[in-house]
From TrEMBL:
Domain of life: Eukaryota
Protein name as catalogued: Heme haloperoxidase family profile domain-containing protein
Family stated for the protein in its record: Belongs to the chloroperoxidase family.
Database matches in Gene3D superfamilies: Chloroperoxidase-like
InterPro entries: Chloroperoxidase, Chloroperoxidase-like_sf
C-alpha cells in the first residue's frame, strides 16, 4: 500500500511542480553561501525514512506537557509561515528560530503535522537559498530568512493571513485586515471544502490584482503554487486527509495563535504518510481554473 501511494504522490508532485514553472525557475543554485544545496527532487541529503507507522510510542499522543507553547521572545526569530512558527513555539524547532537545518525541519514537521519530507522540502529547500546564517555544513537557515522577497524564493503575495508586501509594514505577521477578508469569504462554512478553498483563493487573487499595483503576472504565477499548497496543508492537516474537508475552528485557532490545537482535541493523523495535501492542492487548482473559465465565458 505504501508503494502505490508513495508512487502516486511522487507522480503528482512531479506534475504539480511542472505545472508551476515560475516557482520552479527559482530552484537554481543561487545561494551566495552554499554552492551545493540540494534541489527539489534530489533526496540524497533527505531523511525520507520517517512516516506515521514509524512514529515512536512516546509521540503517539502529543501534548502541551511534552511540547509546551511559549510565545516567541524579543530575540526569537520567526518566519512568515504559521506552521513553521508553531513548531518553534512548541520547541519542536529551536525556540530561538536560529540555525535550522533540513533534518530539524524534517523531524519537526513530521512530529508536529505528520508531514513527509517531499512536502516539507517544497518550502524548506527553496527557503535554504535565502540563508543568512553563514553555515553550510550542514546548511541552515534562520526562520526570519524566509521573509526574503528578492530574489523571490518562497515568500509571496496573496496570502490568507498576511498583507501583501506592496502595502508595507511588517512582512509575514498576522494582519487582522487581511485575515478578516478571508474569514468573511469563509462565512457560513464550518467546513472548508475544496470548493470553498478555490472560491476564496480566486477572490484573494482578484483582490490583489485590483488593489496591489505590484501584483504582476509573474508575481501571480509565482504565488499560485505556495498558496495552493498552503490550502492543501491547512485543510488536510486540520480536516480530512482524503477529502480535504478542513475544520474552520481548528484552522482559525492555529492561524490566530500559532499554537497546536491540541486543547481542542486535535492530534496529527497517524494513518497516512504520503503528502496527500499535494493531491488536494492539485484538486483546488483545477476547481479554481474552472471558476475562472466560467467567468470568462459569461
Ligand atoms: C529517493 O531515494 C530513493 C532511495 O532511498 C530512490 O529510490 C529514489 O529514486 C529517490 N528519489 C529521487 C527523486 O531522487
Ligand atoms: C536520518 O535520521 C536517522 C534517525 O531517524 C539518523 O540516524 C540518520 O543519520 C539520518 N540520516 C540523514 C541522512 O540525515
Ligand atoms: C525528533 O524530535 C524529537 C523531539 O524533539 C526528539 O526527541 C527526537 O530525537 C528527534 N528525532 C530525530 C531523528 O531527530
Ligand atoms: C514594487 O515593484 C518594484 C519593481 O519590482 C520594486 O522595486 C518595489 O520595491 C516594489 N514595491 C513594493 C512595496 O513591494
Ligand atoms: C483529487 O484528484 C485526484 C486525481 O487528480 C482524484 O483521484 C481524487 O479523487 C481527488 N480528490 C478529491 C477530494 O477531489
Ligand atoms: C471542528 O473541530 C472542533 C474541535 O475539535 C469540534 O468541536 C467541531 O465540532 C468541529 N466542527 C465540525 C463542523 O466538524
Amino acid at each position: 500500500m505504501h508503494t502505490s501511494t508513495t508512487f502516486l504522490a511522487f507522480v503528482h508532485l512531479a506534475s504539480l511542480t511542472a505545472a508551476f514553472p515560475s516557482y520552479m525557475r527559482r530552484q537554481t543554485n543561487n545561494s551566495p553561501i552554499c554552492p551545493n544545496l540540494p534541489t527539489l527532487g534530489d533526496n540524497s541529503t533527505a531523511n525520507n525514512t520517517r512516516h506515521a507507522d514509524s512514529r515512536p510510542e512516546e509521540f503517539r499522543i502529543m501534548s502541551e506537557e511534552m511540547f509546551p507553547f511559549i510565545p516567541p521572545g524579543p530575540n526569537d526569530l520567526r518566519s512568515p509561515c504559521p506552521a513553521v512558527n508553531t513548531l518553534a513555539n512548541h520547541g519542536m524547532l529551536p525556540r530561538d528560530g536560529r540555525n535550522v537545518d533540513l533534518n530539524l525541519f524534517t523531524n519537526a514537521s513530521w512530529l508536529g503535522f505528520n508531514m513527509g519530507y517531499d512536502t516539507m522540502a517544497l518550502i524548506a529547500l527553496p527557503g535554504m537559498r535565502s540563508s543568512t546564517t553563514g553555515n553550510c555544513n550542514p546548511p541552515t537557515v534562520h526562520l526570519s530568512d524566509l521573509k526574503q522577497r528578492v530574489p523571490k524564493l518562497v515568500e509571496h503575495e496573496a496570502s490568507l493571513s498576511r498583507r501583501d508586501a506592496f502595502f508595507g509594514g511588517a512582512i509575514g505577521t498576522l494582519d487582522q485586515e487581511q485575515w478578516s477578508r478571508t474569514l468573511a469569504r469563509w462565512e457560513g462554512h464550518d467546513i472548508i471544502t475544496l470548493d470553498v478553498a478555490a472560491k476564496e483563493l480566486k477572490a484573494r487573487f482578484d483582490w490583489s490584482r485590483e488593489n496591489n499595483a505590484n501584483f504582476t503576472a509573474d508575481e501571480e504565477e509565482f504565488s499560485r503554487l505556495p498558496s495552493l499548497l498552503q490550502y492543501g496543508l491547512l485543510i488536510t492537516t486540520f480536516g480530512n486527509m482524503e477529502t480535504g474537508d478542513g475544520n474552520k475552528t481548528l484552522i482559525k485557532y492555529f492561524i490566530e495563535n500559532e499554537r497546536m490545537p491540541w486543547s481542542l482535541g486535535w492530534q496529527p493523523t497517524q494513518e497516512l504518510y504520503f503528502p496527500n495535501n499535494q493531491l488536494v492542492a492539485g484538486n483546488i487548482s483545477a476547481i479554481w481554473d474552472s471558476l475562472v473559465e466560467a467567468e470568462e465565458t459569461c
